């Protein structure tokens, strides 16, 4: 603070990181030496969940200080949604276990937004979401049977051949056992490849990202597409990967009657993308005839954005090309994650019913 004041910068508020709330005597001393009002010396204490911070800072009047300094006309703060969020964290009414089949699980930060989005989906329903992180290569080595006691399976994004067969095996297991499945980006690719091999009778199906010479490249590199601004972008195998990815928020039209349309509650959505390979349209009609639901398409109808298994064949099997975890919030969650956690709860209730009945008799 001394150096800032020497530069002519005077703080209006000080947030002091600490393990315990600052004693009043310490706040008074800090205020004296920094020329900051005593009420504006705020304790930013360690909390067991970050979602308590808005409530904690409100209790110390930080929001009132900011409003006063900015001369804003506002209504009294309503933090009921934050209170509900914290209540759901501390006193959940239910819990589910979700397996995440990734390629980088040893680096938890790689999936940080994904883990938070799953928890957000649980908060909306007062449900604790327990995450079971599994390497996709472990599925290849040990078999997908290790997933039999989870309530939902999520296969997230990724790049490259390593571990992809494990992701396909996870998608197949979820489809056959009827465990709720959520595929994101590469997870959608895995689900499509499984459908091609297991249902469409195409044993040589794969993504051309992993096998350029596969018999049936059901996932392939598109060479030209139109961005949300109307610009045409092109790429080929030799193009720079970073510069030719389909990036950013783009619109998608949802199919009437699909699970996705019901969850979003609207016909057109806007979600963020980060990928190069797409569903190969050569197989679109064949797969639809065999029961795959094309639940979402780009506005020009050229790109498949979402696929589902029909409700009569699977209770909840949804996969998308985009990354919905990027737009999840703790208070509202995200429609797809909310729906996935709800489906996991329903699956758990059915899965555990026989065991609970036996325990009751015993």
Report the end-to-end length measured between terminal Cα atoms: 68 Å
User: Please, how many helices?
Assistant: 12
Number of strands: 16
Radius of gyration: 25 Å
What portion of the residues fall into strands of 2 or more residues? Answer: 15-25%
Biggest sheet statistics: 9 strands, mixed
- Which residue ranges are poorly predicted, with pLDDT under 50 across at least 5 consecutive positions? 239-243
Helix content: 25-40%
Gist?
The protein has 362 residues and is an alpha/beta fold.
List the helices and strands and how they pair.
Blueprint: H1 2-6, E1 14-18, H2 24-34, E2 41-45, H3 53-59, H4 62-70, H5 80-90, E3 94-102, H6 112-123, E4 127-135, H7 136-142, E5 152-155, H8 164-177, E6 181-184, H9 186-198, E7 205-207, E8 216-221, E9 224-226, E10 232-234, E11 246-254, H10 259-264, E12 268-275, E13 277-279, H11 284-289, E14 293-298, E15 304-308, E16 317-320, H12 335-361
Parallel strand pairs: 1-2, 3-4, 3-5, 5-6, 6-16, 7-8
Antiparallel strand pairs: 8-13, 9-10, 11-12, 11-14, 14-15, 15-16
């Amino acid at each position: 603070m001394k150096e800032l004041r020497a530069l002519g910068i005077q703080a209006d508020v000080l947030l002091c990181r600490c393990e315990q709330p600052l004693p009043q005597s310490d706040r008074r001393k800090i205020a004296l030496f920094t020329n900051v009002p005593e009420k504006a010396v705020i304790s930013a204490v360690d909390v067991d969940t970050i979602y308590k911070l808005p409530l904690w800072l409100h209790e110390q009047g930080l929001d009132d200080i900011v409003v006063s300094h900015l001369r804003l006309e506002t209504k009294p703060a309503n933090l009921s949604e934050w209170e509900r969020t914290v209540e759901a964290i501390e006193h959940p009414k239910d819990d589910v276990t979700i397996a995440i089949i990734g390629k980088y699980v040893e680096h938890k930060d790689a999936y940080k937004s994904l883990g938070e989005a799953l928890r957000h989906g649980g908060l909306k329903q007062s449900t604790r979401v327990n995450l079971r992180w599994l390497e996709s290569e472990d599925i290849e080595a040990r078999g997908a049977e290790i997933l039999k006691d989870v309530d939902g399976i999520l296969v997230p994004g990724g790049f490259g051949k390593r571990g992809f067969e494990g992701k396909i095996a996870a998608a197949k297991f979820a489809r056959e056992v009827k465990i709720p499945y959520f595929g994101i980006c590469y997870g959608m690719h895995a689900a499509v490849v499984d459908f091609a091999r297991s249902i469409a009778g195409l044993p040589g199906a794969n993504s051309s990202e992993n096998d350029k010479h596969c018999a049936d490249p059901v996932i392939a590199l598109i060479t030209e597409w139109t961005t949300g601004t109307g610009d045409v972008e092109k790429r080929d195998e030799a193009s720079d990967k970073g510069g030719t990815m389909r990036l950013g928020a783009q619109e998608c039209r949802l199919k009437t009657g699909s699970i996705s349309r019901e969850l979003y509650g609207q016909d057109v959505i806007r979600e963020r993308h980060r990928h190069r390979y797409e569903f190969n349209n050569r197989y679109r009609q064949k797969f639809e005839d065999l029961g795959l639901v094309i639940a979402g398409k780009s506005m020009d109808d050229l790109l498949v954005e979402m696929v589902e298994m029909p409700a009569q064949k699977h209770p909840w099997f949804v996969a998308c090309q985009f990354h919905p975890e990027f737009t999840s919030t703790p208070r509202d969650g995200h429609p797809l994650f909310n729906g996935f956690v709800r489906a996991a709860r329903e699956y758990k209730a059915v899965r555990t019913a026989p065991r609970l009945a036996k325990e009751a008799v015993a």
